[in-house]
């Protein structure tokens, strides 16, 4: 599992970690029962504080993405694929709503916005 931290991001480091681990679970690069690096080892690898990685793992556990067994480590929890899909859909809906709201500030039409989405979609294939 590779996690990349951006110091120039507005997103807090613990959120960057949780987002990337969630994305690895969504994309099935991490599967149920897979062990995550220890909090200490991940902190060393990323050159960040242990408290930051601990916070990320606590958030992931609270949201049901991982289970932590005291003294043994943290593991990917069993996931309801439909629930995961719904969570991801909600994130996409929120971002699209934000894009629509932002487009209104520059009088970008819905057709122009759709065209932009088509162009971006083609560029990510």
Overview of the structural elements:
This protein has 125 residues and is mostly helical. It folds into two domains: 64 residues, Winged helix-like DNA-binding domain superfamily/Winged helix DNA-binding domain (Arc Repressor Mutant, subunit A, Orthogonal Bundle), CATH 1.10.10; 43 residues. Helices cover 59% and strands 6% of the residues. A hairpin with a 3-residue loop joins strand 1 and strand 2. Helix 1 crosses helix 3 and helix 2 crosses helix 3. The longest helix has 25 residues. It is elongated, with a radius of gyration of 18 Å. The two termini are 23 Å apart. Pfam families: GntR (PF00392). InterPro entries: Tscrpt_reg_HTH_GntR.
Short key terms for the protein model shown above:
125 residues; mainly alpha; Arc Repressor Mutant, subunit A; two-stranded antiparallel ribbon; 5 helices; elongated
Radius of gyration: 18 Å
CATH fold label of the largest domain: Arc Repressor Mutant, subunit A
CATH homologous superfamily name of the largest domain? Winged helix-like DNA-binding domain superfamily/Winged helix DNA-binding domain
Strand order of the largest sheet: 1-2
Structural class: mainly alpha
Shape descriptor:
elongated
Q: Fraction of residues in helices?
A: 55-70%
CATH architecture identity of the largest domain: Orthogonal Bundle
Low-confidence stretches: none
What is the string of SSEs from the N terminus onward? Answer: HHHEEHH
């Amino acid at each position: 599992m590779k996690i990349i931290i951006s110091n120039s991001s507005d997103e807090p480091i613990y959120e960057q970690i949780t987002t990337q681990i969630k994305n690895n679970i969504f994309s099935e690069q991490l599967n149920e029962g897979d062990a995550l690096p220890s909090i200490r080892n991940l902190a060393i690898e990323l050159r960040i504080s242990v408290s930051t990685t601990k916070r990320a793992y606590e958030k992931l556990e609270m949201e049901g993405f991982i289970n932590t067994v005291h003294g043994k480590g943290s593991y990917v929890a069993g996931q309801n694929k439909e629930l995961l899909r719904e969570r991801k859909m909600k994130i996409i809906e929120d971002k699209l709503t934000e894009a629509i709201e932002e487009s209104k500030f520059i009088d970008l039409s819905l057709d122009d916005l759709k065209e932009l989405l088509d162009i971006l979609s083609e560029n990510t294939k």
